[in-house]
Amino acid sequence: DCPHLPVEIITHILSYLHITDRKEASLVCRSWYEASQYRQFQKNVTFKFPVSTSSLDFIRALSRHPHCGLVISHLDDSALSRQVLVEVGVHLGPRLDCLALPGSSITESSLLGLLPHLTSLQKLDLQGLDSLFMSGAFLSREEHRRQVQHALRKLQELNLSDLRYLSDLSFNRITSCTPRLLRLSLAGCHIAFEFDPYRGCPVGSGSSALVSLRNLLSLLQKQAGSLRSLDLSRTSITPKSLCSIAQVPGLRLEELSLRGCKELMDYSIQILCKQQNGLKMLDLSSCTELTSRTVLAVATKLKELRSLSMSQDWKITDKGLAELMALPCLRTLDLSECLHVSGADLVKGLSSPQPRAQPETLSLRNCTYIRDSVMYSLSQLLGCNLKVLDLTSCVYLTDLSVRAIATYLPALVVLRLGWCKEISDWGLLGMVEPTKDCEPRDKEEEKGPSFTRTFGNMGFFQPPSMPFQEKPHLVTDEDLGAFREQEGASLLALRCLQELDLSACSKLTDTSITQVLRFPNLQRLSLSMLPEISDESLVSVAHHCRSLTSLSLNHCPQISDHGMTQALTHLKRLQHLYLAGCDAITNKTLSIIAQHCEPLKTLDVSMCKDITVQQVDYLQSHLPFLEKVQCRFVNGADFTMVL
């Protein structure tokens, strides 16, 4: 009997909802669904699906969208796959903005039948499609090249990553059809960069089996006016080859990825920074020969740099990091697994009165020299700008760092503290742990047996206990009362938090988890390997964090069916659930998941000894979106279901 609301009013209501809530609201009735498809909600939409008979009707239904992207997986040479590509060309051809075909093995004829229809295509992803290039005949006919060139004249992004059989001829043919590229990826391709001194040319330049440096340089020269992003990660690029690329006339790169290029040396990066000083994104991760000279070159020359990644560059030290903090545009800095970085020079650079960087993302994962004093100073200096902070495996950080983070970084969206074993309930609650009673021992006990300096251990002494093995002082009810009354620096202050990782912080118990983890917008949470938390924590998290899409509880021995039964009724958005090694979980939990977790895509129940394969099969038949189930060592089985 309720009057029908105009679609404009429904659209206005939906505009206030999170995208997940909007999807749920679209299922109320047809008018709400139509309102959810309004153009303001459908910008840059990409649809991902595997090949199946139902995908044919889905593709036809997409024809009403003005523009969209497709990610179609598991295509092969079957009649169904060919029919899917035909339907895409007929119904979506001029409307398709981007196309990706991961995990596929399609033939040349199938793709050549589709590409001429895609006249508005801006992004083409052919990553790993070796079946297209294995014969070396792709686009060998002139008429095919003309058709494809006409269709791809607007193409801006081309991904040719991980193509083992990409040859000079194939590379020339496909890039000749894309005259105005903005972004090109050749990550993981076999490219002949090495120079042959006897022939005076790059190795492989006389063969069509590999892409040669000569042909790559030729392409860069032709498209220097448009090309702004280049990805050569995981290639065998040499220092001299990088210098040649950096010095191409007219080339003005803004993004360059060299991740995993292990042959690069400092001098090549110095020349790169001098020649390509307009770079805004530079990825030098896993370039293990680089030292702090590279950091100084980046800090001196790349004044417009916004993002820098130097993770796993093991020779990097603190030297140069102070100068790096003088880059006013720098927003993202990744120093994870730079084992010699202590952060002292970061503090020094950020303390400068001159214009300085304002990082929004900072990763110090596995930087084991980071201490509380540095983290306290960084928190004060970074303030409200920082959105993402990764301190995973910074094993010497304690509750003091947690209190500093909660006090000075209120805008944090992502916080990762996994494997920081010194963090306890006191830190999450924002309280100072009372000083432990130190009772003096008797003189005889203190002195112990007397031995000469050369006398061996002989088992008389026990090895010293590690700090993280000590039992923390337990929080009492009186302490909790004081916590509720104070307005201190508890983790509750981080109201914008959407991702939190507390994995392996083994001193945490139900006391802090139930009191502090109350974030309505939290989407991803990891509490794996917390032996002291129980169903009480799980139920509290489910009640206060109902936006969770990913929950990890691996190796939490006290989590049981009882807690899962109470929790899952509140977690309607859950898409990824990890319960590996939870010994108290049985088939009952899988039944509850089947009832309440319809959006679930990923489930890990490995090493859950009381779960059966038959119940996993039952779950698969009841969850329409389930894509992957990890079942290793479940009831004697050892396998992974990819659905």
UniProtKB/TrEMBL annotation:
InterPro entries: F-box-like_dom_sf (IPR036047), F-box_dom (IPR001810), FBXL15_LRR (IPR057207), Leu-rich_rpt (IPR001611), Leu-rich_rpt_Cys-con_subtyp (IPR006553), LRR_dom_sf (IPR032675). SUPFAM superfamilies: F-box domain, RNI-like. Residues 1-45 form the F-box domain. One of its GO terms (cellular component) is SCF ubiquitin ligase complex. Coiled coil: none annotated. One of its GO terms (biological process) is SCF-dependent proteasomal ubiquitin-dependent protein catabolic process. It comes from the Eukaryota. It holds the Pfam family LRR_6. Keywords: Leucine-rich repeat, Ubl conjugation pathway. Gene3D superfamilies: Ribonuclease Inhibitor. This is Leucine-rich repeat-containing protein 29.
